[in-house]
Amino acid sequence: MANDRSPLPENSSAPSGAIPDSSRSQSDLLDDIETIVRGSMNPAYPGYIGHMDTIPTTVSVLGDLVASAVNNNMLSVEMSPVFSELEVRLTEKIADEFGLGPDAGGVLCSGGSLANLHALTVARNQAFNVHKEGLVGVGRKPVLFASEVAHTSLQKAAMLVGLGTDAVIPIETDDNSRMDPNALEQAIEKAEREDRAPFCVIATAGTTTTGNIDPLPAIRDVADEHDLWFHVDAAYGGALVFSEAECGRLDGIESADSVTFNPQKWCYVAKTCAMALFADEDILQEDFRIGAPYMRGNDAIPNLGELSVQGTRRADILKLWLTFQHLGRDGLEQLIDESYRLTALIRDRVVKHDALELASRPEMNIICFRAVPEWCPSEKQDDLNNRLQQTLLSEHDIFVSLPTYRDNRWLRVVLLNPFTGEETLQRLFGGIDGFLNAEQG
């Protein structure tokens, strides 16, 4: 049972990597599998509230099993007829949920990092017409702009598409970790004066550490003013589109040229399941597609492997479709809204606590805070919070992560676990108070 195992194992070891000369018995293999499971992270435990990792829906696990069993290749329609059509239909539907327009669509990717890479590649190709000849003939250095707390996958993407990590110009954020549109405007103008070539602005809907949302309408206006590609990394926050009460936080995303969305997080789909969506799906044909001459084409449905970073892909669309069918809009909305209710409870407890402070005002189900008791010198606060995190895990079976944010260590709670309730939150704050009282002596 998941409740019998701590969020993180005390001890774990991987089995031998040796390849045996002959087949091992079924019972031996099952024993090894049990050892592997017991040594793994346990996101189902109610006290696992530290990362954007969820327990998957049962139907998405079933979808993974079925997809593995039929073993279709999402490279082409010929090799995955049902799944290719389903992916086209469902990505178009999700693009419509974001309001991207009648010509929108996209492809699934193995994670948000690949989705950001895909979007950035398309943006670069369109801006500089380098689909065929590459960057050699580009006179000015291409640059793009993202929040100083944007996901590190953007630097990886810039490196992979030949721009270098320094091409991602970090933009200052406000007290709530949201990109400052005025600073963005100034950075673009500065790049132009320095004879660099701005081509893309990336806004974040759900920052990794604090879960904040950049002011999308204001950033869109700046991007439009300078005729730049507008990408929204909504890997985490995109799920808000399914909550009537919270979807307004995504206002402005409908104007994006591309969007990254990662249902493996707040939609509870088994890893991996992400997507790159484009307001104009035809741009994939014009500025990205590499044909596979060994595959038969289809006028109605494209060979998705020709339009994506990956060629061979598993049929992740099945577990996504099954999860939507199983939970429905009502189920997704209930999960999102309940996590907001719990977020408010934690936020209020932190604000009222004399020895705790928030990193930013929570906009999602992520609360980043730290212990700053007056009796602890500032230079020792990181160590104090490090020991607090370890104590919560070892003595209370509560796992919170410990990110570095603005040069300090913080405790981060991510309320994705549907088994986490008010009792877990009581244990969290009871553990915090007990630790601080013991430390103060």
Give a quick set of tags describing it.
441 residues; PyrdxlP-dep_Trfase_small; PyrdxlP-dep_Trfase; 11 helices; 2 domains; three-stranded antiparallel β-sheet; 12% strand; Aspartate Aminotransferase, domain 1; PyrdxlP-dep_de-COase; alpha/beta; Aspartate Aminotransferase, domain 2; lyase; 12 strands; pyridoxal phosphate
Describe the structure.
With 441 residues, the protein is of the alpha/beta class. Helix 2 packs antiparallel against helix 9 (317-352). The protein has eleven helices and twelve strands. Strand 10 (404-405) and strand 11 form a beta hairpin. The strands form three sheets. The chain has a seven-stranded mixed β-sheet with strand order 1-7-6-5-4-2-3, with helices on both faces. It has a three-stranded antiparallel β-sheet with strand order 8-9-12. It has a two-stranded antiparallel sheet with strand order 10-11. It has two domains: 73-314, Aspartate Aminotransferase, domain 2 (3-Layer(aba) Sandwich), CATH 3.40.640; 328-440, Aspartate Aminotransferase, domain 1.
**Parts with pLDDT < 50 across at least 5 consecutive residues:** none
Number of domain units: 2
- CATH-assigned fold name of the largest domain: Aspartate Aminotransferase, domain 2
Largest sheet: 7 strands, mixed
Q: What proportion of the residues form beta strands (DSSP E)?
A: 5-15%
Name given to the CATH architecture of the largest domain = 3-Layer(aba) Sandwich
Order of helices and strands: HHHEHEHEHEHEEEHHEEHEEEH
How would the global form be characterised?
globular
Number of helices: 11
Number of strands: 12
What is the H level of CATH, i.e. the homologous superfamily of the largest domain? Type I PLP-dependent aspartate aminotransferase-like (Major domain)
GO molecular function: carboxy-lyase activity
Modified residues (N6-(pyridoxal phosphate)lysine): 265
Family: Belongs to the group II decarboxylase family.
Pfam family, one: Pyridoxal_deC
